[in-house]
Amino acid sequence: MASRRAFTSADIKSKSDDYHGSCRFARVPSPVSDAGIKSMNLELEFEEALKLSLALTAGLHQLNRYDRNTDAGRRRCLTLSVKIDNKAISVVEGVLPKDAVM
C-alpha cells in the first residue's frame, strides 16, 4: 500500500546528527575569564550524561516553580560547577546578580 504522507523526512530541515542544542550563560567567574580560557570540552560517558540530564531536569523543574514575572523569579539560575581535580559536575540552584539578568 502506498504511503499517504504529504511529506518525507527529506523535506524537513534538520541540524547535524551530533548537535543537541545550546544556550547562553549569564556570566563567567573572574578567575576563568582572566586566565584567557575561551572554551572547554567535557567528554561524558553515557551513564554520566544521563546523571547530568537528570540533575538539569530536576533543577529546571524547581526553577519553573518560581514566578518569572518577578525580578526575584527571573534571577533564579542553575550553576554548573565543574571540579577539574575530581572530574565532577554539580548542578546547583542559585541567584544571579541584578546586573546579570538578560
Entry summary:
By secondary structure, the chain is α+β, with helices and mostly antiparallel strands. Helices cover 28% and strands 16% of the residues.
Describe the structure.
This protein has 102 residues and is of the alpha+beta class. It has a domain at 42-102. It is 28% helix and 16% strand. It contains 3 helices and 2 strands. The protein has helices at residues 30-34, 46-64, 71-75; strands at residues 76-83, 88-95. It has a two-stranded antiparallel sheet. The longest helix is centred in the middle third of the chain and has 19 residues, at 46-64. It is extended, with a radius of gyration of 19 Å. The termini are far apart. The mean pLDDT is 80.
